[in-house]
Fold this sequence. Notes:
It is built from seven helices and 23 strands. It is of the alpha+beta class.
Amino acid sequence: MGRTSRKKRSTLANRAIIASAALILGGGGLAAVNVYASAGEGTSPGSAHGRNWQPVRQASTIDCPEVVNEIPEVPDAARAEVDRELAAMDTQITDAYREFADRRDRMARDPQLAQNSVLGPLKARRTASIDRIATAIGRSAERPEGLGSLAPCSLRADDEAESQGPGEDPGQSEDPGQNGGGDGQDQGQDGGGDGQDPDQGRGGNGPEDSDFVDIQSVQPNVDKPARRRGASRGAFLTECGRNQNGKFNPDNVIAAPGVGNGAHHMHDYVGNQATDAFSGDDDLAAGDTTCRNQGDRSTYYWPVLRLQNGEAENDAAADGGGKDQNVGEIQTPSQVTLKFVGNPTGKVTAMPRFLRIITGDAKALTNGDANANASWSCTGFEDRQLKDKYPICPEGSQVVRSFAFQSCWDGRNTDSANHRTHVAFAQDDGRCPNGFRAIPQLVQRIVYDVPPGPGFAVDSFPEQLHKPVTDHGDFINVFDDKLMRKVVSCINDGRKCR
């Protein structure tokens, strides 16, 4: 897809009209609170000036249980249908979020509207999809039970959504999706205050100013396991460019194969140029590559980063772009480094061709941070890594996104039902979990030359509010056998190769 420039996710109880809302607290834990006080206590929330009406926080997104994490192993015969239904459920959430966002203020005055027009219909659609998933699995294996409990979703407040005091008219409260959740008073201390409107050019659903932090206020926090005797100390660097040719699409061939716009956000691609939702292994094997070494036809992709400067991209009215609330000027990285490294405790073995790895969690805002894995930093400060904040870099320093992919493989599968359990991270001591073997670890570093301050964001599912913790990377290994042998040899012998 072309563009204008190359710059650079319970049912409702009777005592709570809107169900529990999860607030992300320090340390990433989830605590449940009610968005609105009990409708049975005093005046109902629909009465704006009722004495006993006390909204705690204005809801800002939709929170749905992640079904893929709860289903059992999926038989091969059912995999395609299950993947399609899981992708359909993502679209259901996206559509429900759009309905919620369009009438957020009305729902604040009349919370039953959220149940009638958003949560109820969403539960019905999710129930139907979950039933189809269970039926598909049941044709070849034991039908899973209990998945229906995952159908209900709730509204929740973002961690930075503003509290509203008793007696205030909710219709007069500011929309947290529009004002960034801040009052502008703390921008200076965070390094982002310049007297300009902090919301100029933003998409209306994040990020917040409080999602940014001055990297110079962060203490060094990088700790690597010590290398032991027998460690594989080498590295292999593959040079595949920076997506200068502008290959973008909102597909995810790993998580949503065969489904266009399965990601609901735009991806940058380097390496294999045949990659889209419909690419099979044969297509990838025959695809052109931007990698200098033509033996590497692997697919490397990640959400684009946009400068939220009010400039419209060519995808402003397209899926994955403006239609999914991803707006702003897509930034071409100033540098992309793709490096494969070894294991601190022993040798690595070749990864299988067409191995698929997803690192990070595109739904970490609502899922929690258990699978979050992106790191944010600035050039010159990379001993300070952020997981849930974007960095504000000083003048002359550039923004850095990095991903250290899972480096342990189960020795059998190139993918799994949830796209995670066939690979694993090494343990704290660097060893692979029992039953897993060490493989070359992809370490991905992406650098951007963007203006200092809170003015950029990665693309995300709309309900994930462009939070930095949702950043993620995807990789499909399409090294030919000869080159993979070279990668393993270089790493195990302690050499630096490319």
